[in-house]
Structures are given as structure tokens and as C-alpha cells.
Design goal:
523 residues; two-stranded antiparallel sheet; alpha/beta; 19 helices; eight-stranded parallel beta sheet
């Protein structure tokens, strides 16, 4: 293997046509002295000095716990800033704090960002932290893309001005390792939405079925989307495999079959180390064979632990990956795949979308999610809230009059709205209503992350990351599919909630173009 040129930037690596390797670095909770042996700075420098490793990626509070921020560590290896990827999540900061962090990254010369919603917090000082999720991954990407274009703000004297343009190279994640159609298909649709919003590279979350990794590339190809896709590898141990199998770590999936195999090898003299290293190396070989842009390796905590896996991956013969692809297909029971499977090659084909899925689009099955409430909501929306049709012009005039001269009628309308929406939807009175965007399910009531732009990656077996309810977007998908609308469920402008409308009439805000549906907010 020829050593990478360490002067090549991360952006250049992914566009080079050559297969590169990246390494995950996870920070810690607590003080991390910079001058002690074996510290994080030494770890990161050791990786960047390894000719086999093209870049490092620094996580942002993975698992939902508090840790040192990624840019702290990045600052200690600033001479390699173009080979460093920073994760930026939405769980701990509102949009102002996120924007401030992004300005700091740009000012310090860090351009490579993985924009993700983030895990739900799992703990904190004297109890569970209250998550933020003011933005989600799609709206975060939209913010970063706007900064790249020269963010438009209100300057002194109320005049608009453009801020200096940034040069972020924004990536996004997708979670293909879902068991059910209602979980998986919205993931793919949201991926397309992220790329439309400004994401320029993709990394799938963790799983051990190469067919599902391959599906991500195939799905993008069927949509005519050409962006680099990075293969994700995590070196397993018996303990990590149990954790991933439990569903307690969002987006990380190990099937029962793979867990049994790892437990079998873990009973041996080397505790399964050889098997797990070979599994990781074979995954990398498959990624390279399938035309992925790079392979990303995590789960290793010593700089010299990455090299042996990379060397093993490079030692295989050019066509060995084809056998490995068929070997590493540890799917879940009755798992849904978007593309049909070729048993001979082990691959899926972009020209063979799942025939049962296509048939179900023509004749959707009945769903328990299609309730009387949902049918009534669609009817009312069609009659009263469809722009410039039916009752919409009349109601718009009424609300405009009441808005100019607030009084009994405006107060009564707001009261009727609050009571009816609370009874029908569990409304939280946010004032910037996304019920029509979300098949008349309230994101503030029914989604732990208040996700208005598509599903997060945390669901498992159809249930929310917190395992306290059904996945919000899986429910939306079922409702829309019953009406033949699932394929276009995310074909709309990005929704960014305006908190200034909280506890005001969402009806008035809709009719008077104050909410996110206003034409001037389309983008």
C-alpha cells in the first residue's frame, strides 16, 4: 500500500477516487492534561503521523454524555486542521450557540463538519439533562450552507447585510440498519433531503450487514446523486457487541446471529480478538471493492491499534471482497431491504427495487395509524388551510381583521384552537404548527427530539430511541403511505421552528404568513 500524502486535505481525499482510511477519536469527561503520556493529544498526533491514516474524526458527546468538546482536541493538532473532521450535534446547544460554535470553527480554520442531530442525553450532573434539539440535522445543514453562501442578517439600522462566507465541507449520517420498512424508507428520503440542504458527503451509522451499506450507495445512484460515501467500521468486542445488540446505543446494530458468533469466539484463548479484527478488515475490503470513497474505523483506543487492521485489509486479493460481502450479512429477522437480493453475488441491484414494496405502493395495506381523527384532519385542512382554496381566502380576511383590532373574536378563535388541538393532537401551543407536515401528529408531543424534517437515526425495531413509544416518523410514513403520499413525504422546504411564535395562534400565524410555511421562507 502506498502511503497517503499528508498534505492532501480531507475534501481532496474524498474526491480523489482513491480509497482512504480515517480514524475515530472520542474525547473524555473531566480534565485531560496535555502533557501526560497516552493522553488524547498524543493519541491524535500518533494517528495523524501514521502514513496509513488520512484523517481523524472527533466526536461530539457520543451516547449523550458530557465530554470535552471536539474543537478543544482539534486545537491541539491545528497544524493538521484540513485532515480533521469535527462532529457538530444539536442536543446540547440552541441555534445561536451552534452558529457561534460554527463561527469559531471557521475562524480557527476547521472546515470539515459532520452535522448530526445527536443522541438523546443519558445522564448529567444530579440527573438527566434536558435536551435542546432546537435544530435537527437537516436544519443544521441548512444553517451551515447559509453560512457558506454568506449568511444574511439584520445589521445596524435594521438594514440587511451579508456576513463573510465560510467554506465548510459538510457531511451527514444515515441509518440504514432498520428492521422495518416504515423505519428504513424515511431514512433514505431524509438522506436525499440532507444532500439537497447542503451535505456533500455521507457516512452510514453502524451495522454488520454489507448489503445494507451497499443499499445506501444504490439508493443515491437511483436518485442521480453522486456524493462520496464513507464505510463505517467499529472494532467489536464481546462487551460492545452486547451493547449494540441491546439497542441501547442509538444507531448501532448487532444482530442476534452475530452476537452468538462473537460470544463463541470470545470463549477462545484470544477472547475473539482475531475474529473481530478480521471482521473489521473484511468490511474495509468490501467498502473498497464496492467503490466507497473511504473507510472509517472506530472502537480503538490506541494509535497503534489501527495499523494492523488496515494492513490486513490491504493484504487481501483484489476479488476477495466479493466473498466477504456474502459472508458479512448479519441481518435482523424479517428485515426489510429496499432492493432485491442477488443470491449469487450477494449484492443488491439498483435496477431491482423490492417488488413487494413497489406492489404495496400501488395497493397499500390498511394501517391502524389511519384513524378517524386523521381523516377528519385531512378534510379540515383541505377545506380551510389549503392556500387560496375553499375557505382559505375568507378565513385569511377574518384573521387579518382580528389581528389589526384584537378583541373578543380573536380571543375566542384562539381559545377554540387551543382546546380543539389539545384534545385532538396533544398540542403544545408552539405557534408554528407542523401538524400538516407530520401527518397530523404533533412533533413536540410525540417525538423525543421534536424532529420536524424526518427521522433521527435512533429508532430500534420500530420504536423510539427512548423505547417509550412508536417511532414518530414511522407512524407518519404509515399514514401517508395509505394515501399514496409516502414517496413525497419530505419533498418540501426545510422546517425551522420560530420560537417567537410560542403560545400564539398558529391559525393566525398560518393565515397571515408568519410561520414556517410563509412563501417568503421557502428555500
Amino acid at each position: 500500500m502506498t502511503a497517503p500524502d499528508n498534505n492532501v486535505t480531507y475534501r481532496e481525499m474524498l474526491g480523489s477516487g482513491r480509497f482512504y482510511y480515517g480514524a475515530e477519536v472520542v474525547t473524555t469527561r473531566g480534565i485531560e492534561p496535555v502533557d501526560t503520556p497516552g493522553n488524547l493529544a498524543t493519541f491524535a498526533r500518533g494517528l495523524l503521523a501514521d502514513p496509513r491514516i488520512g484523517w481523524i474524526s472527533i466526536t461530539d458527546n457520543p451516547g449523550g454524555g458530557p465530554m470535552l468538546p471536539p474543537d478543544w482536541l482539534a486545537g491541539l493538532v491545528a497544524s493538521h486542521r484540513q485532515r480533521v473532521v469535527l462532529h457538530l450535534t444539536c442536543k446540547d446547544m440552541n441555534r445561536n450557540a451552534i452558529e457561534a460554535a460554527a463561527w469559531r470553527y471557521a475562524s480557527e480554520g476547521f472546515e470539515n463538519i459532520l452535522a448530526i442531530t445527536g443522541d438523546y442525553p443519558t445522564g448529567g450532573f444530579r440527573g438527566l439533562a434536558d435536551p435542546v434539539f432546537d435544530l435537527d440535522s437537516v436544519s443544521l445543514i441548512t444553517l451551515l450552507a447559509s453560512m457558506n453562501a454568506g449568511l444574511q442578517v439584520t445589521g445596524r439600522g435594521g438594514k440587511p447585510e451579508s456576513l463573510p462566507k465560510t467554506n465548510f465541507y459538510v457531511g451527514c449520517a444515515v441509518s440504514p440498519f432498520k428492521r422495518h420498512e416504515r423505519e428504513l424508507v424515511p431514512q433514505y428520503f431524509k438522506l436525499v433531503r440532507k444532500i439537497a440542504a447542503g451535505a456533500r458527503w455521507v457516512i452510514p451509522q453502524l451495522g454488520y450487514d454489507m448489503r445494507k451499506f451497499h443499499e445506501v450507495k444504490l439508493f443515491l445512484e437511483t436518485r442521480g446523486i453522486n456524493v462520496p460515501v464513507i464505510g463505517n467500521v467499529y472494532l467489536l468486542t464481546k462487551g460492545v457487541a452486547k451493547l449494540f445488540n441491546s439497542g441501547k446505543l442509538a444507531g448501532c446494530v448487532v444482530s442476534d446471529e452475530l452476537l452468538r458468533r462473537i460470544e463463541k469466539y470470545a470463549a477462545g484463548p484470544d477472547k475473539g480478538k482475531k475474529f473481530c479484527q478480521e471482521l473489521a478488515a473484511k468490511q474495509l475490503a468490501v467498502f473498497k471493492g464496492l467503490g466507497f470513497a473511504a473507510g472509517y474505523i472506530g472502537g480503538i483506543h490506541k494509535a497503534d491499534g489501527f495499523g494492523p487492521i488496515i494492513d490486513l485489509a490491504e493484504s487481501y486479493q483484489p476479488d476477495d471482497w466479493r466473498d466477504f460481502l456474502k459472508e458479512i450479512q448479519f441481518s435482523q429477522p424479517d428485515e426489510f431491504f429496499f432492493f432485491d437480493h442477488d443470491l449469487h453475488t450477494g449484492q443488491s441491484s439498483a435496477s431491482r427495487i423490492n417488488r413487494e414494496y413497489l406492489s404495496s405502493l400501488r395497493r397499500p395495506a390498511k394501517s391502524k395509524e389511519v384513524t378517524v381523527n386523521y381523516r377528519l384532519s385531512r378534510l379540515v385542512h383541505r377545506m380551510a388551510f389549503t392556500r387560496d382554496k375553499a375557505l382559505y381566502p375568507l378565513l385569511r380576511r377574518f384573521f387579518a381583521r382580528w389581528d389589526r383590532k384584537p378583541g373578543f373574536m380573536s380571543r375566542m378563535a384562539y381559545r377554540i384552537e387551543r382546546i380543539s388541538k389539545l384534545a385532538m393532537y396533544g398540542c403544545k401551543d408552539c405557534g408554528d404548527c407542523s401538524l400538516p407536515d407530520c401527518a397530523y401528529l404533533c412533533p413536540k408531543k410525540w417525538c423525543s427530539k421534536c424532529a420536524r424534517n424526518g427521522p433521527c437515526g435512533g429508532s430500534a425495531d420500530g420504536r423510539c430511541e427512548l423505547d417509550d413509544k412508536e417511532c414518530f416518523w414511522a407512524r407518519i410514513y404509515q399514514r401517508l403511505k395509505s394515501y399514496g403520499e409516502s414517496e413525497t413525504m419530505l419533498d418540501r422546504p426545510v422546517t425551522i421552528y420560530n420560537a417567537s411564535l410560542k403560545e400564539t395562534s398558529s391559525w393566525a400565524n398560518a393565515f397571515l404568513d408568519r410561520d414556517h410555511n410563509a412563501p417568503q421562507n421557502d428555500r
